[in-house]
Amino acid sequence: MRLESIWEDLLLGDDQKVIEKGGFGKPRGLGSRPALLVIDPQPNYMGTREPILKQLDEFPTGVGEKAWEALEKSLPVLNLFRERGLPVIFSRQIAKYMQFDSFANKSGRDRSNYVEGHPYTELVAEVNRQPTDIVIDKGYASVFVGTPLVNYLNRLQVDTLIVCGGVTSGCVRAAVVDAASLNYRVGVLYECLFDRIELSHRVSLLDMWMKYADMLSVDDALEYINTTK
């Protein structure tokens, strides 16, 4: 699949000419010291391995089978990062103090499953968390807000973030925009993202490709990782 085919049928009017004339989507390139950033692979957002509508009663923010497909596609990249001794970072969305949970303010549903300590906030077993992995707990969409992530990246001398996880239009996009704003080079594993709304997923990929990140297939990422020292 051509990358552009993800969003081509969504473009209207002069959109394609604006993209071309504006020079959007130009590759920025990746650096030599990457870290893998896996956004929120938690039951609350993964849900169960079935169509999204069938699991919404238990996981109202779960994506279902598409989330699991995206995670499975990312595993070769995750494993290669570990084999090469490169940093692997997970984020977890947790409401430590509910009054400061920005998502609760936009939701009328019960959010007890999102409070620190609930099993649905833990990383799913399939990521096979290792002692060398870093886990960042966050209370906002971007993993950079109110967390020590930048301090860790500085200590690791990371210049590039390879990003996957979910959801594309929310916490992934927020992290990618902040990373680019902080002058990290960003590669988005577009085959390894998930979102509960297909339109939001596709438009967010277009937006990140246009302005903030290089888009990478799994094969692109594996080739890149194998070229790093």
Explain what the structure shows.
- The chain is of the alpha/beta class.
- It has a single domain, classed as 3-Layer(aba) Sandwich (Rossmann fold), CATH 3.40.50.850.
- The chain is 35% helix and 16% strand.
- The chain is built from eight helices and six strands; from the N terminus they run αβαααββαβαβαβα.
- The protein has a six-stranded parallel β-sheet.
- Strand 4, helix 6 (168-181) and strand 5 form a beta-alpha-beta unit.
- The longest helix is centred in the first third of the chain and has 19 residues, at 65-83.
- It is globular, with a radius of gyration of 17 Å.
- The two termini are 30 Å apart.
- InterPro entries: Isochorismatase-like_dom, Isochorismatase-like_hydrls, Isochorismatase-like_sf.
- It comes from Paenibacillus chartarius.
What secondary-structure arrangement, pairings included, does this model have?
Elements (H helix, E strand, L loop, with lengths): L14 H8 L11 E6 L3 H4 L5 H4 L9 H19 L4 E6 L40 E5 L10 H8 L3 E7 L1 H14 L3 E10 L3 H14 L2 E3 L1 H10 L2
Parallel strand pairs: 1-2, 1-4, 2-3, 4-5, 5-6
Helix pairs in contact: 4-8, 6-7
Organism: Paenibacillus chartarius
Keywords: Hydrolase
InterPro entries: Isochorismatase-like_dom, Isochorismatase-like_hydrls, Isochorismatase-like_sf
